Amino acid sequence: MVINSCELTKQIGAVVEMSKLIIEKVRDISEEACKKETNIFGYGIWSHHIIYVVKYSKLMAEKLGADEEIVEIAALLHDYASIKNADYIKDHHIYGAQEAEKILMSLNYPSEKIEKVKDCIFSHRASVIVDKCSAEDVCVASADAMAHIDQVVSLLYSIYVNKEMGIEEGKEWVRNKIKRSWKKIDPVGKEIIRDKYTCALSVLE
C-alpha cells in the first residue's frame, strides 16, 4: 500500500497532537496531586522542583538524542508516588513506576513507551543505585539532580521550615545533598549546571 505525502503528513500531525495531549493530561494529574493537602511537601515541589526536572530532562534529551516525550512524562511523574502518599517516600521510585503505569494505561499510552517511562522513574534516585540502561534514564536522573542544584532554595526551605533543623545542621545537610546530586549527573549535564553548583557550594561554606 502506497501512502502519499499528504496522508503521511496528516498521520504524523495526528501522532504529534496525541503526544501533546498525553503530556498535558499527565502534567495536570501531577500538578493537581501537588495541590492537595495530603502532599506533605507543599506546592513547592511542583513550582520549585518538578517543572525544573522537566526543563532539564528536555534539555538533556536534546543534547543526548533521547526521546523527549518519554523524558518529559517521566519527569512529570518521577516523584508522584511520594506526593500522593507519604508512606511511599522511602521506595517512591518503585511505587512511582507502578503509579505511572496505572496513569498511562488509563490514557491508552503505548505499552512499550510505558515501560520506558517506568524505567526512567525506577532509576532516577541518587540514593538508590540502579543501572541506567538508556539515554532517557540518564536524562531524568541527571535532571532530577540538576533541579536540586538549580533550586537549592527549595532544599533550604524544606530543611529549615519543614524539618526545623538548626542553621549549621541544615547547611551541612543541604551541602551534602547537592554534592551527592552532582555525582549523579551525566558529564553533559555537569557542564550545563556547573556554575550554579559552584555558586551553591560557595553560599553553603
The average pLDDT is 90
* Biggest sheet overview: none
CATH homologous superfamily grouping: Hypothetical protein af1432
Number of helices: 10
Total discrete domains: 1
Number of DSSP E strands: 0
N/C terminus separation? 67 Å
Reading the helices and strands in chain order gives HHHHHHHHHH
Please tell me the CATH architecture by its name. Orthogonal Bundle
Rg from Cα: 18 Å
SS-derived structural category? mainly alpha
How much beta, percentage-wise? under 5%
CATH first level: Mainly Alpha
The CATH topology label is Hypothetical protein af1432
The low-confidence runs, each spanning 5 or more residues with pLDDT under 50, are none
Helix content: over 70%
Q: Which outline best applies? A: globular
Question: Would you kindly provide a written description of the structure presented here, covering whatever features stand out?
Answer:
The protein has one domain: Orthogonal Bundle (Hypothetical protein af1432). Helices cover 76% and strands 0% of the residues. It has helices at 5-35, 44-64, 68-77, 80-84, 92-106, 111-122, 135-150, 152-162, 167-184, 187-203. Helix 1 runs parallel beside helix 3, helix 5 packs antiparallel against helix 6 and helix 7 packs parallel to helix 10 (187-203). It is globular. The relative contact order is 0.12.
